[in-house]
Amino acid sequence: MLWQNWQNLPSVSSVTIDWTPLWLCVGHMGPVEHIRTLGGSVTSCSSGWGSSLSSSSTCVIGHTYPSDSGLYWCESDDGRQSLMANITISDKSVVLESPPGPVPEGSNVTLRCRTRTASSSERLFSFYKDGHLISSSSTAELSIYNVSTSDQGLYRCHLHQGDQSLHSHVFASPEGPASSCAPPAFTIIRHLLVGSPFLLSTIFMTLVHRNRNQGQVLETSNLPATH
């Protein structure tokens, strides 16, 4: 069983801010089972936490809390296991968001420094790797291009005259390109329905208007030519 040897699996760390959705995706493994361990209790997605999507390769937690912090990984039907992701859901005022898993070598990744307080345009963001300053600007993002093993390490961000984030671990993987983890359209609409009825109605009216215009164009194009 997977949970008999989970302690021996390699892991990577990631930190994200609370009350935001958490998407757990895995590529090139087919249908998988998403698993997490919290306080020694091992459970699968949809067993009291998260929702498995129809693709069977994605699990989503709609709203996260610090209590969702823990080790996450997945296992395919043929017994293959992913790396562990040690995900921390933070309620700190500053959070450095990073991928909750290994980054394929040769790809690009963006680390985002998020704050609950003043506007990001009013702040100076400093990024550190393994304790060394690597960037300082008014931009709340740090982009790493063509990721390699030399980019691996512990990253954190610091606000000038403010707080600093917890460390986030960036790990480079020799595997192929990362698969897309875009939320399905139905799930996006579901969140819009719950969180913003006005926005949803606006999108709906726009689609109706566009379809009506397309229908008028189609009817005009089907009219017999006059001479």
From TrEMBL:
Keyword Cell cycle: no
Record keywords: Disulfide bond, Signal
GO terms, molecular function: aspartic-type endopeptidase activity; transmembrane signaling receptor activity
Domain Peptidase A9: 1-8
PROSITE patterns (UniProt xref): FV_PR, IG_LIKE
Annotated ranges, domain Ig-like: 92-173
Gene Ontology biological process terms from the UniProt entry: cell surface receptor signaling pathway; immune response; proteolysis
Domain of life (superkingdom): Eukaryota
SUPFAM superfamilies (UniProt xref): Immunoglobulin
InterPro entries associated with the record: Ig-like_dom (IPR007110), Ig-like_dom_sf (IPR036179), Ig-like_fold (IPR013783), Ig_Fc_receptor (IPR050488), Ig_sub (IPR003599), Ig_sub2 (IPR003598), Spumavirus_A9 (IPR001641)
GO CC term (a single one): external side of plasma membrane
PANTHER family from the UniProt entry: FC RECEPTOR-LIKE PROTEIN 4 (PTHR11481:SF64), IMMUNOGLOBULIN FC RECEPTOR (PTHR11481)
Protein known as: Ig-like domain-containing protein
Lineage of the species this protein comes from: Eukaryota, Metazoa, Chordata, Craniata, Vertebrata
